[in-house]
Design a protein that fits this description.
With about 575 residues, the protein is α/β, with parallel strands linked by helices. The protein is built from 17 helices and 30 strands. Helices cover about 30% and strands about 25% of the residues. A hairpin with a 2-residue loop joins strand 6 and strand 7. This is 3-[(3aS,4S,7aS)-7a-methyl-1, 5-dioxo-octahydro-1H-inden-4-yl]propanoyl:CoA ligase.
Length: about 575
Amino acid sequence: MVCEEMTAEPATIPALVSAQAHRNGSTVAIVEGSARLTYAGLHTEALRVTRAAMARGVAAGDRVAIWAPNSAHWIVTAVGLLGAGATVVPIGTRLRGPEAAALLRRTRCRGLFTVRGFLGIDYPWLLADQGPLPDLEFTVLLSGTYATDDSATSPSMSDDDQDPPTGVARSVTGSGHRRRDRREPDGCARRPPDRRESAPIDWRDFIADAARIRSSDAESRIAAVPSDAISDILFTSGTTGSPKGVLTTHRQTLTVLDRWASAVTLRHGDRCLLVNPFSHTFGYKAGIVACLLRAATMVLVAVFDPRAVADLMTSERITVLAGPPTVFTDLLAVGRSYPELRLAGTGGTAIPADLIARMRAGLGADQVFTAYGLTESVGVVAVCPPGTDIERTAHTVGKALPGSEIRILSADGREVPVGMPGRIVVRGPNVMSGYLDDPDATAAAVDPQGWLHTGDVGTLDADGYLRVTDRLEDMFIVGGFNVSAAEVEQTLLGYPGIAEVAVVGVPDERLGEVGAAFVVPAGTAPFDADDLLAWCRTRLAGYKIPRMVRILDRLPRTTEGKVRKRRLRCAQ
């Protein structure tokens, strides 16, 4: 089917889903296992969530968290909550009780959607001993699976539809109860004095409440969501301190990801394997939202297992795969090629030129792109688009996203000459609306002229290509000489037999600090640290050479995939 052009640009994420349901309703939106959900079916199921949320009294501006792995439920729930006017708060599944409880308190979430049994973890139980969550009024357990959707042709349900949803199958009935309050004029149930639930509600019981709200009332609620409403609160990784809640709007999310999708050539008909967690901008914005904008098909992965993913790549004829470099090194180790793969994307760390070449030759990727972004930039600052030569793709992250600007500033705030390093700042629609409840931190990050001051160091070449060379806090000083951890890492990646590496500065009595390298070897052959250091002596100044090398099975990472360098420093 040919993707129909939209006559008017949708202003919000739920409006986008509604528009795609009308124009590309028969296109498969989600593949999860053997289940298929079309864009028409996605809108229908999300509308049921909107109705059920309204029945529970969820109002515009309320915050509701999703603490669950990648799934069709995650996408349907998020779109449905956004349609009710709520702000979605994604929480990573690697977080444990104290961390999740802290985020729920900080965001004052009224509701939580979560799971039991993912990787053997009972997520509601993790909160049981975390003290009161005074704002949390209901918890819903995502359970059951979606039936294959071959017949969804209508993007909405009739106003008199009173049946439980047919798209939710094989759920186990839980202990939740349903309210029977009268509806407000806008179709929203009246709020009883005490709405806190004593036990989690099963998904089927939650969704059955949709019958209490007319579809027309839910459609009106969706239409009333303003484009400048806060769509989500995503938390930074916290590698340098307490995680900050980043506020972004519907409008800027759609604007930025539409430009990103164009830059990387994402298109209707693509089948995108989504391996990045939806709690992160890479999975949520560059994954879900970008696919929604192009009516692409999302093939979901909850747990990355290289061989299982390799099988899925073949059986589902995947055309687009984006992820951190480790995804591609792991797939290369499986030793298969994927003739349908036209586009592979990576970023977020130093990329060896050899890996770019192997992604093309070994995996069969027709084109490779790299990108750079942060939570505060709606996930995107720059893109090195498909078709760029290998060296530039490996050593830069491309040019500023269309419609945005990048500058490099010195320590005193002056713009530096071409090729000189300095702090990366960005201005445009990809600058966050602010940090949650932290005006001082917001003012420190975004100056009066609208420039977002990142914590990254980089250079711009004469053609406007950005190279990210370091984090400001990743600079360490050896005997009075500044050392860029990223520079040393990039050099070490050129040594045969290294899959991943992280370099940190550690205390030294004589020199103040020295470098420590944490290496993940490629393959199973013995790794000789002395040989590595001897190799470094011909490639790095003496003060840049790590004084110690530790061999690890894997690098410690945050839920977003960033290396936990603070943990590495503490390990010394």
